[in-house]
Amino acid sequence: MEYRIFEVFVQKDHGSPHVWVGSVDAGSADDALLLARESFLRRDPAVSIWVVEQQQIHRTDYEDKDFFARESDRAYRMLSGYNKANAEKWRKYKKNLLDLEKDFVKD
Amino acid sequence: MENRPVLVELLYQLADDELVIGHRDSEWLGLAPHIEEDIAYASIAQDEIGHANMYYKLLEELGEGKADDLAFLRPADERKNAVLLERPNGAGTYLENPEFEWDYTVARRLFYDLFDAVRLDVLTRSSYTPLAQVAAKIRREERYHLLHHTTWFKRLATGTDESRRRLESGIAKAWADLGGLFSLGGVPTSEVFPATTTDLVDRFTAELKPLFADVGLAWPAPMLMRPPLGLDGRRGQHTEELAALLETMGEVYRTAPGATW
Amino acid sequence: MPQVSEPNDEQRLAEFMARIGRGEKIEATDWMPDEYRITLVKFMQMHALSEVMGALPEKEWVPKAPTLARKLSLMAKVQDEMGHGQLILRVAEDLAIPMGKNREDLVNELFTGVAKFHNVFHMPAPTWADAGIIGWLVDGAAVVSQAALLDSSYGPYARVLQRVCAEEGFHIQHGESICLALAEGTPEQRQSLQEALNRWWESLLLFFGPAETTSASATILLKYRFRTKTNEELRQKFFTKYVPRIWSLGLTLPDPDFRWNEATQLWEYTAPDWSKLKAIARNQGPLSQYRLGLRRMSYEQTRWVREALLGGSKSQAV
């Protein structure tokens, strides 16, 4: 019997996605599921384990850094690109509103 | 500064190229062949507009005016983009009956990405340091664009008989305007742009020919070495389509230039 | 020893409802009653298709966006909407497998009219100010609505919505930023903002659906804890969050009777014309056919591309 390598993904609770935690050597996928439980969940709770045979994983090349290059300023698509400037303006307008009516400002 | 007029002319070519192709790319939003592709393509469109913004900012630093004004207000006969990039994505407009052609888009985008890779390499050796630095950044981002469009080129070439036939037609259509990319317009070869049209064409051809061979597509004739026939966008010669594009692009901006939007 | 018999459907259903009652999450591989699966697929399909169709009114403004920064920002927002459509459609696709439906089927139902898309996206966006109002208030309404789905009993949907809601934060800030700029701008800019608000107000009321609903699917959604609030609760929440801000900018609502009722602790508003929802449900809203037409046209015209991707090259997953 040849060992095959299985990559292991664990879902810690129903609110979370599966996350990669490591790999196991096993003879089959079913074996891998059993073994993964003890390799990775001795201390941590979980609701689900996936195993995927390592050769089924396709990967990018670490050497290919440009594949991930994000060089332009991306503030335009980030919350941080707006929230300070907007918040300053709203503070100004909120003052207006408090001067008009008292009871409506519930956030 | 020495060479300032040449530098400014070059920057307009770069900025206008990226702005116009980014604008055409953005017309595909919501209309791409499938959802995942729509999402990926939107990043490419954003990158191009981002690059245009970087180049217009360099022009702003040189005292040409505000980046948005340069992008939105200049008339068609002052634009220095290549005509290939202003051509529509297909019949109709993005609002009315967009009969957009994915094969033409893939061909045009691949050719532009390859050309840009060659051009950016030259720009990283420009004597104007701010430009060399911007070019180095842009080149890293363009890597994904080239990979994306090369992949599409191969998929369509080797997919079905229909996709291959359509790609050939898209290639032929883009080929007619291809020469115009390589025109240097009013920019002589100098330390600001240390390459000639011939250099660019040779390097481009060296990159593209193997790709055609890989997928068994015939290299279209005539060869690129001939000076561009027809309109030279880099000398401000454009189509009606650019005028329409600029009309749309500046429609809101022109209602109150100088206002904050 | 007596045989333990297989649970019958009635027992399974009882246990299923007990799980729901305990606030447990249902996963794709769990047993579920057909009614749950069918209703869920339909709901998520509509949500996904709405995200995709929702990109269309805003993408109209990308080519005309009045600054490079706004052009970028609006493109990023539209991209996110397509992204949300993709995430939710994948969840729907997985659940629809036992029903024999795949992505092609789910998308085609949009064109045949079997699947609907949200009423708000059937409406016109004739000016730049509309793009601002959509980003601020339509997305604002969507966030209020989606927050009530975050605790959905269906696990994959609840998880995907976390990501969706996180991205919506940027959308609202982007929309606010546009509206604030217009509110503080030239008299014409201010006026265009007020006019856009007047145009969208009714749609914002209609967004949450009718207050009194005995529709079968609305009842099912609450019964299975798929959604945890009623239409009216959500609409009231929207008012509380946004009306004060609208007023603080010196804008008015096109409803002179809109007011806070201290006694009932509810906002009172003039009811919109609910019958408009019926026309929209038949895809006879102002721009229903136009927008469907765009999607249908692009889908048909790019069929050859999908065929090349899926049928052509060997061993390529899409």
Coarse shape of chain B: globular
Counting H and I runs of at least 4 residues, what is the number of helices of chain B?
9
Number of E-state strands of chain B: 2
Rg on CA atoms of chain B, Å: 18 Å
Contiguous low-pLDDT stretches of chain A (5 residues minimum) are 103-107
| Share of β-strand residues of chain B | under 5%
The computed structural class of chain A is alpha+beta
Helix content of chain B: 55-70%
Number of strands of chain A: 3
The DSSP helix count of chain A reads 2
Low-confidence stretches of chain B: none
Main beta sheet strand tally, sense and closure of chain B: 2 strands, antiparallel
What about the largest sheet of chain A? 3 strands, antiparallel
The most extensive interface between chains reads: B-C, 51 and 51 residues
Q: How far apart are the termini of chain B?
A: 34 Å
- Our measurement of the CA-to-CA distance between the termini of chain A, rounded to an integer number of angstroms, reads 63 Å
H-E string of chain B: HHHHEEHHHHH
Task: Write down the overall geometry of chain A.
Answer: elongated
Mean pLDDT of chain A: 87
Please describe the structure with a list of short key phrases separated by commas or semicolons.
heterotrimer; A: 107 residues; alpha+beta; three-stranded antiparallel β-sheet; 3 strands; 28% helix; elongated; disordered C terminus; C: 318 residues; mainly alpha; two-stranded antiparallel sheet; 12 helices; 2 strands
Please render the helix and strand layout as text:
The complex is a heterotrimer of chains A (107), B (261) and C (318).
Chain A: E1 4-11, E2 19-26, H1 29-40, E3 48-53, H2 83-100
Chain B: H1 4-26, H2 35-61, H3 67-72, H4 83-86, E1 90-91, E2 99-100, H5 102-123, H6 129-158, H7 161-178, H8 197-214, H9 240-250
Antiparallel strand pairs in B: 1-2
Helix pairs in contact in B: 1-2, 2-6, 5-6, 5-7, 5-8, 6-7
Chain C: H1 9-21, H2 34-59, H3 68-96, H4 103-112, H5 128-147, H6 155-183, H7 187-207, H8 216-223, H9 231-248, E1 259-261, E2 266-268, H10 275-281, H11 288-301, H12 303-312
Antiparallel strand pairs in C: 1-2
Please explain how this structure is put together.
The complex is a heterotrimer of chains A (107), B (261) and C (318). By secondary structure, chain A is of the alpha+beta class. Chain A has two helices and three strands; from the N terminus they run E-E-H-E-H. In chain A, strand 1 and strand 2 (19-26) form a beta hairpin. Mean pLDDT of chain A is 87; it is low at 103-107. Chain B has 261 residues and is mainly α. Chain B contains nine helices and two strands. A two-stranded antiparallel ribbon of chain B has the order 1-2. Chain B is globular and about 55 Å long. Chain C has 318 residues and is an all-alpha fold. Chain C has a two-stranded antiparallel sheet. In chain C, helix 3 (68-96) packs antiparallel against helix 6 (155-183), helix 5 (128-147) packs antiparallel against helix 6 and helix 5 (128-147) runs parallel beside helix 7. Chain C is globular. Chain A binds chain B through residues 65-67, 69-73, 77, and chain B through 46-47, 50-51, 53-54, 137-138, 140-141, 143-144, 147.
